[in-house]
């Protein structure tokens, strides 16, 4: 007997013995089903593992995304609006977040709205919350501003002449509290007629250098400043309006 014959004999000796061909068929069928079951179980396990890892990855990315948005969220100004939402004169102060430089204009507008809360409403927000795109579309630059009924420019009468006030920038660098008061008064008069009492107190316009309510409209209210002359302060650069977009 050669090696090949010996191998066949060993295989036949170790092979399962069946009482009938039908029993052998059932055995082979069960073995095939077991193999298929193992393959399917492995595939299901891989799918479950893949789904778990995918969701785990998306959850981490979502957490990072939410954390990033939370970090980028603009800081709230923390100043409540004053006046009725139905008032015809709506004033919105847009100021930088985290700066006390605009406390004067905020206090001034709160006082004005308190005098006529049914007719004047003052609201306050930050430049970051208002949005740089919205600011650029509205005033042509990303800058602090005071809006009266949605506009940063108001035409008033002074010494029998029309003066167009721009409330873009900072007070007193680009406008005075008197300018803001005069602009609000002009819009108020257009809706309700001339007020019986002044809408703002001249004393509230006084600063360290004197009365910023004096001088022609648009004149800075700093000490030693010639009325109508642009105010120059260290660290400040006069802002220029962006050129109008060509159609």
Describe the structure in your own words.
There is one protein chain. By secondary structure, the protein is α+β, with helices and mostly antiparallel strands. The chain folds into two domains: 53 residues; 123 residues, 3-Layer(aba) Sandwich (Glutaredoxin). Helices cover 43% and strands 14% of the residues. It contains six helices and seven strands; from the N terminus they run ααβαβααβββαββ. The protein is rod-shaped and about 130 Å long. The termini are far apart. 22% of the residues are buried. About 16% of the residues have low confidence.
How would a crystallographer describe the biggest sheet?
Answer: 3 strands, mixed
Number of H- or I-type helical stretches: 6
General form: rod-shaped
Q: What is the CATH level 1 assignment of the largest domain? A: Alpha Beta
Low-confidence stretches: 68-74, 207-216, 219-240
- Please report the distance between the alpha carbons of the first and last residues: 102 Å
Number of domains: 2
The CATH topology annotation of the largest domain reads as: Glutaredoxin
Would you list the SSEs in sequence order as H and E?
A: HHEHEHHEEEHEE
Based on the model shown, name its key terms:
alpha+beta; Glutaredoxin; three-stranded mixed β-sheet; 247 residues; 2 domains; two-stranded antiparallel ribbon
Question: Would you summarize the structure shown here?
Answer:
By secondary structure, the protein is α+β, with helices and mostly antiparallel strands.
Give the arrangement of secondary structure elements.
Layout lengths: L2 H12 L6 H52 L16 E7 L7 H13 L4 E7 H4 L1 H8 L5 E4 L4 E6 L2 E6 L10 H16 L13 E2 L2 E2 L36
Parallel strand pairs: 1-2
Antiparallel strand pairs: 1-3, 4-5, 6-7
């Amino acid at each position: 007997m050669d090696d090949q014959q010996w191998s066949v004999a060993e295989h036949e000796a170790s092979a399962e013995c069946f009482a009938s061909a039908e029993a052998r068929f059932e055995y082979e069928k069960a073995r095939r089903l077991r193999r298929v079951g193992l393959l399917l179980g492995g595939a299901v396990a891989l799918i479950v593992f893949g789904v778990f890892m995918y969701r785990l990855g998306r959850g981490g990315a979502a957490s990072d995304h939410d954390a990033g948005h939370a970090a980028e969220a603009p800081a709230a100004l923390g100043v409540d609006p004053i006046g009725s939402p139905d008032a015809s004169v709506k004033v919105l102060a847009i100021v930088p977040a985290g700066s006390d430089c605009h406390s004067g204009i905020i206090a001034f507008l709160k006082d004005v709205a308190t005098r006529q809360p049914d007719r004047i409403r003052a609201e306050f927000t930050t430049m970051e919350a208002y949005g740089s795109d919205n600011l650029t579309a509205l005033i042509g630059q990303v800058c602090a501003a005071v809006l009266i009924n949605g506009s940063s420019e108001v035409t008033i009468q002074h010494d029998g002449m029309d003066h167009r006030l721009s409330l873009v920038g900072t007070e007193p660098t680009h406008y005075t509290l008197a300018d803001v008061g005069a602009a609000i008064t002009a819009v108020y008069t257009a809706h309700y007629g001339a007020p019986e009492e002044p809408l703002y107190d001249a004393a509230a316009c006084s600063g360290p250098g004197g009365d910023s309510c004096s001088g022609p409209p648009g004149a800075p209210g700093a000490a030693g400043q010639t009325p109508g002359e642009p105010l120059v302060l260290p660290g400040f650069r006069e802002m220029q309006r962006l050129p109008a977009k060509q159609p």
